[in-house]
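WARN no homologs supplied; continuing
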Amino acid sequence: MPLQSSVRASKKPRLDDEVRFLRSWIEKPLHMGAVMPSGKLLARTMAHYVDVKSDAPVVELGPGTGAITSALVERGVDQKRLVLVEYNPGFCALLRDRYPQAKVVQGDAYRLRDTLWNVLSMPAAAVVSGLPLVTKPMLTRLRLIRDAFTALAPGAPFVQFTYSVAPPIPKSLPGVSTEASERIWMNLPPARVWVYRKD
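OK structure emitted
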């Protein structure tokens, strides 16, 4: 009986997160990157591109309930390095509770330069994004990656997932190298991780 209780207890936070996500998606569908939190395999794939040995900050855009944040911490990224930029005040409160050593910034990631201007003390080791880029005009996407590159150390990755077959940002940007993961079929819906680095 205690084993069943512990299994139920471990599933409850995931279920609570799914309900929170769904409620937020119903209220503002274009502000949410997904209807449900990212799956573990997708989150681990994104975290894989982050340098755990660096002391530099890791900026996460649109962490929601923290599925990718959790994968970053499990990979070995110290919470103190995390700068979590979240628009939704309810998710900000949840993130502060779950990751008390991280810096949670309530702000608009699509205005990244304004949102981070007094937050980072050094260039970031990575920007990891769960934002719904494909719902935004291309100029907005390009402005976001330009601002991300301004915040990043030279050669550091901008990591973005998408459910779309096409890349969220064109592969042919001048001075930018691009790589993509295999399609992650175990995620619902299936997703791919794209990584952009300024040459």
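Residues 1-11, 30-36 have pLDDT under 50 and may be disordered.
OK
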